[in-house]
Amino acid sequence: RAPRLFGRERPVHAALGGREAADIILWRRPKVSASILGAATAAWALFEVAEYHFLTLACYAAMIAMLTFFIWTNASAFMNLPVPRIPETILSERTAKQVILGLHRRLTWFVHRLYAIACGEDIKKFIMTVVSLYIASVVATCFSSLTLLYLVVLCTMTVPALYERYEHEVDHLVATGARDVRTHFAKMDSGVLRKIPRGKGATTAAHGTTANNVHGWHRSHVN
Prior knowledge:
By secondary structure, the chain is mostly helical. Helix content is about 80%, strand content about 0%.
């Protein structure tokens, strides 16, 4: 079996935390996952494609909601309908605290991670992080912030699920590609090093060093 991607030993669900967020990302709860992806797509289409302003759209949504509640509340007395109520989860103080604490925990982890890398304990990881941040900044200049955020959500909701479904095939292709790349680099390095011409100065210096060593060897034996 080919080695797993990124050298991990745990399955994808466990690598993503193994909790409710992992279930949503891997489409173990398809209704919630589809709702998140659909809402993100609708928001991107409204703000980026249709070019609605956030305040304008928020006012329209508030007007439609108020009109719906007004009609529903007044019609409930004639049609025996239940009075609409706002779900407690939307205004729950506990839910708001959990969301804020979760964001704070992830932000703290990210800052500490950058600080540990910036201390220079692992120079390879430091260089890779700087290059990755530079590449991210270049990519960010090609898209708007909303489009970039939508692409992140789209990749998060599709790539892990597709990888989990075709895990063996992807791991095999990645391992084969990495082995081929290492082989080509090894051939290129050996071919380039063999074809580097040596200058006259280097050749003369090498001959001079060899001659001095030979004379020194003769003098030591004569003495």
